[in-house]
Design brief:
Elements: H1 9-12, H2 22-37, E1 58-65, E2 71-76, E3 83-85, H3 94-106, E4 124-131, E5 138-144, H4 152-162, E6 168-173, E7 185-190, E8 195-199, E9 202-206, H5 216-230, E10 237-241, H6 247-253, E11 258-263, H7 266-278, E12 284-288, H8 291-300, E13 307-310, H9 319-328, E14 332-337, H10 340-352, E15 355-363, E16 373-380
Parallel strand pairs: 5-6, 10-11, 10-13, 11-12, 13-14
Antiparallel strand pairs: 1-2, 1-4, 2-3, 4-5, 6-7, 8-9, 14-16, 15-16
Helix pairs in contact: 2-10, 3-4, 8-9
């Protein structure tokens, strides 16, 4: 594949590796995974994406005004709050980006101003668009500084006329001084307030705050690799830690005796419970709890598990979680990470507890960026 070009490349910062061909990029990421993980074992060749463009099913845009008082929308320049006005993106779903461009054009017609962080005036802060790639359902989340929405019905009518593919619109209210995108209050303005998408043959319900992998095609590759590494026979009790809306745990449930999902975000747990019910998965249960605290309590109670699936945030796991995992002594641990550096920091704690790394598999989940996902399989030395 030839090198791609983007007019926003120098300012945006989203595609750090766009100056490389995709083959060069995969080689770079292979070396990155090897740099951090080769001391634990052989790093398998990275699994690249068949379609490395337009893969992001979730698109976020900040709104503001340029020096000529024209509405702009896009991402922030690195280490700043200067907005890069973006009309198209090589990574983002084309429909999602088009919706954001339409909203940008509609605002002046309805005398709706973007929010100004310095003066704390204005209405629209951000727009988030999620698209179910397999279902075609589209959610638009309008993040506003105030719950008062002038000309709301006319605005929605105009937006839906331009984009009849939109299936739901949610207003999220965020009036705090914060870099966090979404606030605590929200109301559904159109449709059911959620969308659905399918992954590995199952349907998942996604609300505005649900965690869901942004690259569905590569997520299927990642999850199938992880579940294959687990070596499930139908007799195992599986613990899915940091489970989000229950995606990988529900997929694993078809090959396991029982699955327990643990997730700190209550909204994600509610979605997970609904997802399991809608998919007819009866051998999985979910707990709303901090993963480390729950693991410590489970280890103290000597809860027996056979397989541990863990997919912590970029910051990695905690020593307390890993110590509890060692005490619970699952036969296999499948550690999925979006940061090989923190994963490499955590692995020695599991090795000291009697685990041996037997497989390391990188997956390119985020083409054109420096990020790489890695699956590490650990097996207990003495079974």
């Amino acid at each position: 594949m030839e090198k791609l070009t983007c007019p926003y490349f120098k300012r945006c910062g989203g595609c750090q590796l766009l100056s490389m061909t995709y083959e060069e990029e995969l080689n770079y990421k292979q070396q990155l995974a090897q740099k951090h993980l080769s001391r634990f074992g052989k790093v398998q060749p990275i699994l690249g994406a068949a379609q490395p463009c337009y893969y992001r099913n979730k698109v976020e845009a900040a709104f503001g005004l340029d020096r000529s008082r024209r509405v702009i929308a896009g991402t922030y320049e690195p280490r700043s709050h200067r907005i890069v006005n973006i009309d198209h993106c090589l990574n983002e779903d084309k429909i999602a980006t088009a919706i954001i461009v339409t909203i940008k054009k509609l605002l002046p017609s309805f005398r709706l101003l973007p929010y100004d962080e310095d003066t704390r005036t204005g209405f629209l802060r951000h727009v988030l668009v999620r698209r179910g790639v397999h279902t075609g359902e589209v959610m638009v989340v309008l993040v506003t500084a105030s719950p008062v929405f002038p000309s709301r019905q006319n605005f929605l009518k105009a937006l839906l006329k331009e984009h009849p593919e939109i299936t739901t619109v949610v207003q999220n209210v965020n009036n705090r001084r914060t870099s966090v995108l979404l606030g605590d209050r929200e109301q559904t303005l159109y449709g059911p307030g959620f969308i659905r998408d399918t992954l590995c043959g199952m349907t998942f319900r996604l609300s505005p705050k649900s965690f869901y992998q942004i690259n569905p095609a590569q997520t299927e590759v990642l999850y199938r690799q992880a579940i294959e590494a687990a070596g499930l026979t139908g007799q195992e009790r599986v613990l899915d830690a940091y489970c989000g809306i229950g995606t990988i745990g529900m997929i694993a449930a078809g090959k396991a005796r029982e699955v327990i999902g643990v997730e700190q975000n209550p909204a994600a747990v509610r979605d997970a419970i609904r997802n399991a019910k809608e998919n007819g998965v009866g051998n999985i249960r979910f707990v709303a709890a901090d993963a480390t605290e729950w693991m410590q309590a489970a280890a103290a109670e000597r809860l027996a598990i056979d397989i541990l699936l863990m997919d912590p945030p970029r910051s990695g796991s905690t020593p307390e979680f890993l110590s509890a995992a060692v005490k619970m002594a699952p036969r296999r641990i499948i550690y999925i990470s979006c940061c090989p550096e923190t994963q490499a920091r955590d692995l020695p704690l599991l090795q000291k507890g009697g685990y041996r790394v037997t497989q390391i598999q990188p997956v390119d989940m985020f083409p054109h960026t420096e990020h790489v996902e890695t699956i590490v399989l650990l097996q207990r030395e003495t079974l």
